[in-house]
Amino acid sequence: MSRATLPAGALVVSCQAHADSPLHGPQWMALMAMAAEAGGAQGIRANGPADVAAIRAVTRLPIIGIHKIGDPRGVFITPTAAAADGVVRAGADIVAIDATTRPRPDGGPLAAQIRHIHETWDVPVMADVDTLDAGLAARAAGADLVATTLAGYVGGTAPDEPDLRLVAALADRLDCPVVAEGRIRTGTHARLARAAGAHAVVVGTAITNPLELTKRFVRAMDDGR
Ligand SMILES: CC(=O)N[C@H](C=O)[C@@H](O)[C@H](O)[C@H](O)COP(=O)(O)O
């Protein structure tokens, strides 16, 4: 099967909804992906085989598949080979996996999971990292793309702004596409990420999470009282 790739300059829209959102469910994520495509997105990021399959049924855009499993404070973005298998079977073109240097749930090295995905499915692996060192290690372990997805989420509290310095540092040191992801909230952020060397930019909350966006407005209005 030939799989789609992410064109340079692509806006990828992450279509995910937590269980506490009325939009949780494959049918709603498929509609979200259709809206994103109609708006010009050139890729979709989606969580779990059910959402990936529903989105695959409505678009030919490249899908970055993930499967969040377990405790979000640990390695939980596609933490195992089996989790990766599920999203590729459902139709993902690229698999994104946690590639921080934290211990993995199966105790194995990152390289083993990447090798499994390459050898079993021949699809590219996107390494979701938090630091430059993790990005370099992930590339050395065989990752095909490196994304800043987990910057700010490993220990401590995530800042409001995207980590564009990490985008620039990764783009400077890596010989593979770097993807800017995480807290890209405005068109200016996206443009700056491209200028910093990002091959593509992933936007989630700012486009597909009305629950969180509404909360932000409510908080801002409360603060102004
Ligand atoms: C840290 C983590 O779990 N990130 C997740 C990864 O898939 C998603 O919850 C984010 O929405 C996605 O990365 C896009 O980022 P933002 O929603 O900030 O545009």
UniProtKB/TrEMBL annotation:
It comes from Virgisporangium aurantiacum. Gene3D superfamilies: Aldolase class I. GO terms for biological process: N-acetylmannosamine catabolic process; N-acetylneuraminate catabolic process. Pathway: Amino-sugar metabolism; N-acetylneuraminate degradation; D-fructose 6-phosphate from N-acetylneuraminate: step 3/5. Its EC number is 5.1.3.9. Belongs to the NanE family. PROSITE patterns: PROKAR_LIPOPROTEIN (PS51257). Keywords: Carbohydrate metabolism, Isomerase. The gene is nanE. It catalyses: an N-acyl-D-glucosamine 6-phosphate = an N-acyl-D-mannosamine 6-phosphate. It is an enzyme of class 5 (isomerase). This is N-acylglucosamine-6-phosphate 2-epimerase. PANTHER family: N-ACETYLMANNOSAMINE-6-PHOSPHATE 2-EPIMERASE-RELATED. Converts N-acetylmannosamine-6-phosphate (ManNAc-6-P) to N-acetylglucosamine-6-phosphate (GlcNAc-6-P). The keyword RNA-binding does not apply. GO terms for cellular component: cytosol. SUPFAM superfamilies: Ribulose-phoshate binding barrel (SSF51366). GO terms for molecular function: N-acylglucosamine-6-phosphate 2-epimerase activity.
